[in-house]
User: Fold this.
Amino acid sequence: MLKPTMLIAAKDLRLTLTRGAGLVQALLLGLVLVFVFSLSRQAGDLVPAQTAATIFWLASLFSLVLMSNALFSLEEESNARPGLILSPAPLASVWAGKALASGLLLVASQLAFMPATIIFLGNEPSGPAESWLVGIAGILVVDWGLVAVGALLGALAQGQAGRESLLSLVLFPLVVPVLLAGIRLTTGFLEGASPLGAGSWLGLALGFGALYSAVGLLLFPVLYRAGD
Amino acid sequence: MNIRFLLALAAGVAVFGSQLLVWLYAPVEMTLGPIQKIFYLHLPCAWWALMSFFVVFVASIAYLLKRNFFWDRLAGAAAELGVLLALLALATGSIWGRVSWNVWWTWDPRLTTTLVMWFIYAGYLLIRSLSMQPGRRAVVSAVLGIVAFLDVPLVFYSARLWRSIHPAVFSASGGGLEPEMKLTLFVCLGAFGLLWAALLLGRLWQMNAAERIEARIIWKEH
Assistant:
C-alpha cells in the first residue's frame, strides 16, 4: 500500500504545486485571517498567547478546507475518479495519499502562518528547548489528526456545490478535540513555557489521529466508491 | 388500531401524567424555586437526544453492512429527533444556568459536548438534505453517522481536560434528589421515552410513505 500512497501523494503535490492556485489560495486566506485578527488589538498591545494560538489554528483549519477541496477536485475536473477506483491500488491508499499530500501542504503553509502570528500578534516564543519541542511536536501531531479527518470528509463533499462551506460545517465541530489540544500546546509554545498537562494533550491528539486514521482506512473506500 | 396510534396514545397519557407529578406532586426546590422544574424537561431531553444519536450510529453501521434503505431512514429519523431534543436540552439548560449560576453559558464538559454534538448532527442533517443520488447520500450519511458518534467521547474528554486547567465558573454541587423528585424524574424519563418512540415511529412511517409516493410518481412518468 505504501507505493500507491506515495504515487498518489506525489501526483497530487505535483498537480497542486505546478498550478499553484491551491496552495497560494490557502496561504493567502490564512495570512489574511491572521492579519485581520491583528486589527482587533491596540497598537503596542500584546494579544494573549491563547488567542494568538487560536488564530493560528483557525488559519490552519481554513487552509486545510481549501486544500482538501483542491485535492479532491483534481480527479473531479478530469473525471478521473473511476480510473482510480478501477486501478489495482487499494482505495485506502487514495485516502492515505490525499492525507499525506494535504499534511505536507498544511505544514508548508504553517511555516508562513507561525511567523505571521508572531509578527502580527506580538507573541514571541522565547522558552527553553523543551517548550519548542512540545510546541513543534504538538503542531505535527495535531496536523496528523486534522488531515486524517480532512481527507475522509473531502470525499464526502466531492461533487457538491458550495463544497468549502459544506466541508467546514462538518469538519469544524468534528475536530474540536484535536483543535483544543493544538491551541493548548501552541499557547504554551507562544508563552515560552511548557503547557500544563502537555502529556495529556499530546496523548489526546495522538489518540484522535490514530482513531481517525483507522476510520479513514476503513470507511474511505466505501465513501469514495459511492459516486454519483 | 395500529402500533403507531397505540404508542402515540400511551405517550400522550404518560406525558400528561408526568406533568401532573411535576406540578402537583414534586416539591418546589428551596433555593431555585419553581424554575427548578425545568429539570424534569431538561434531563429527559438530553437523555433521549443521546439515545437518538446512538440509534443513528447503530443504524449507520447496519446500513453499510446490509445496504437496506430502512436503516438509512431510521438513522435520518433518529437524527432529526436527536437534534430537536438536544436543542431543547441546550435551551432549557441555558435558562436554568442563567437563574442558578447567573450565566447563560459556561465552559463545562457536558454543555460543550452537547453543543458540539448538536453542530455535528445539524451538519449531518444538512448533508442528508442535499440533492444526491439516493445510494450515495445514504453511504455519505452512514459514514458521517459513525464518525460523528466516535467523536463525542473525545470531545467530552478534551472538555474535561480544558476545564481542569481553567477554573470553572461554577462547581458541580453534590447532594441527591428528594424521593418525590426522583420518582417524578423517572416517570418523566419514561414518558419522554414513549413520546420519543412514538415520534420516531411516526417519522419513519412518514419517510416510508414519501418514498412510496416518489416511486409511484417516477413509475407514472415512465
Q: What stands out?
A: The mean pLDDT of chain B is 87.
